[in-house]
Amino acid sequence: AALALDNGLARTPPMGWLHWERFLCGTDCATDPRRCVSERLFVEMADVMAAEGWRDAGYEFVCIDDCWMAPTRDEHGRLQADPKRFPSGIRKLADYVHSKGLKLGIYSDVGNKTCAGFPGSYNHYDLDAQTFASWGVDLLKFDGCNSDTLELLAEGYRRMSLALNRTGRSIVYSCEWPFYLRPVQQPNYTEIKQYCNHWRNFFDVYDSWSSIKSILDWTALHQDSIVKIAGPGGWNDPDMATLPGIFVFLSQLVIGNFGLSWDQAVTQMAMWAIMAAPLFMSNDLRHISPEAKWLLQNKEVIAINQDPLGKQGYQIIKDKNFELWERPLSGGAYAMAVLNRQEIGGPQNFTFSLTFLGNGLACNPACTVWQVLPASREWGVYSWVSSLNVEVNPTGTVLLKV
Fold first, then answer.
1. For the Alpha galactosidase A C-terminal domain, which residue ranges apply (predicted)?
2. Rounded distance, CA 113 to CA 131, Å?
């Protein structure tokens, strides 16, 4: 087991773009070709990612989720792309994505069918791993629908991990394993990290503030069990767990869509950085506002998310409507987020002592404080016994680096 995930990948949380939340399972290319899960969609998204700074900001994966497959395997038992929506095949698409300096992710399922009812990988783990490697795939999102028992589920996740390694190709392995276990038993995260590069814990993220709040609540409630296992090579994906049979996909940044206010978008970006979460956008990069683009490409926030120390952040104070989160960073620095959960009225002030940070070590004997979000500015030098007074908009977050 200790050698199971011998791929040396995901030293920092993976970053990229994923089709699911924005484009769902759209398969009617005749009626709506620009919103259809098709070769065209991924080619156009790769073009934009290479041309408009996304790749250079660190977003390297272009990920296909469910609904890419033909309804049946081919005559040799191999998975195949829908021939009408992917006429050139996945190998050609991967070659194109690679030509843009990007990587291709794909989706399959540990059970006999995917969540949307397409062919799953049960009893085909080695064949499917070899197929993905021969196509030049760089990431596999492996879902957990339609597995008959938890024993078969666990066996399938282990077997696919080993099968991917046997291909000799470097393929990031994204699992849904703990999500399916939680309704029945506490996941063994030590074992899961031996097999997976990142894993999902909670319900699908939706384009709504209530969804973001639920993810943050769940993460804070379970931080004692999940924070300690995260680190280089294996990351908590702060998506939410539902019941088996419901669509389940990577936690996605929904910034640039329709459901979040500006302050709520800032909160998602800041908190995903604090939580060392994989940064997978699900939006239409062909049509995105300059403000959303600025936020998603913000180098200071991404640097916190990608910090090489690889420590996940956690909540240290909850006081009425305010929450204070911290994340240890390399070089003895800390990131901290002050979140205002109030949803009425105007900006509110939160005051706290710097002695709370890093068990009293973050600012001892003195430190500089820099605001990263919602705008970048220097706050100055503070002593160990200083207090900070932070003004935060309703549903907003102020992200600081100490």
1. 310-396
2. 17
**65, 82, 128, 143: which one is catalytic?**
143
Q: How far is Cα 197 from Cα 234, in angstroms, rounded to an integer?
A: 4
Count of Cβ atoms closer than 10 Å to residue 124 Cβ: 20
255, exposed or middle or buried, with CB in 10 Å at 0-12, 13-18, 19+? Answer: buried
Structure tokens at 73: 């395997």
Domain ranges of the chain: 15-306, 314-401
For residue 323, give both structure tokens: 């929450």
pLDDT tens-digit series, residues 156-210 = 999 999 999 999 999 999 999 988 887 788 899 999 999 999 998 755 567 889 9
Do 218 and 202 form a contact (C-beta atoms < 8 A)? Answer: yes
Task: Tell which residue, 362, 343, 344, has the closest CA to residue 352.
Answer: 362
Kindly report, residue by residue over 202-257, the tens digit of the pLDDT: 555 678 899 899 999 999 999 999 999 999 999 998 764 333 333 333 458 899 89
Q: Name the residue with tokens 């002030």.
A: 349
Three-state DSSP class for 119? strand
Tell which CATH architecture fits domain 15-306. Alpha-Beta Barrel (3.20)
47-81 confidence digits (pLDDT tens) = 999 999 999 999 999 999 999 999 999 999 999 99
**CA 7 – CA 230 distance, rounded (Å):** 17
Q: Which is it for strands 397-401 and 366-373: parallel, antiparallel or unpaired? A: antiparallel
Number of other CB atoms surrounding residue 378 within 10 Å: 9
Q: Is 143 a catalytic residue?
A: yes
Q: Respond yes or no: is residue 82 known to be catalytic.
A: no
One-letter amino acid for residue 48 of the chain: V
Sequence-separated (6 or more) residues with CB below 8 Å from residue 335: 273, 274, 304, 307, 313, 326, 327, 329, 372, 399, 400, 401, 402
Q: Which of the residues 66, 109, 138, 204 is marked catalytic? A: 204
Domain 314-401: CATH superfamily is Golgi alpha-mannosidase II (2.60.40.1180)
pLDDT mean across residues, the chain = 93
Q: What is the DSSP letter of 170?
A: -
Question: What token pair was written down for 225?
Answer: 């069990």
Q: Is 206 left (phi over 0), alpha (psi -120 to 50) or beta?
A: beta
Q: Are 318 and 353 in contact (CB under 8 A)?
A: no
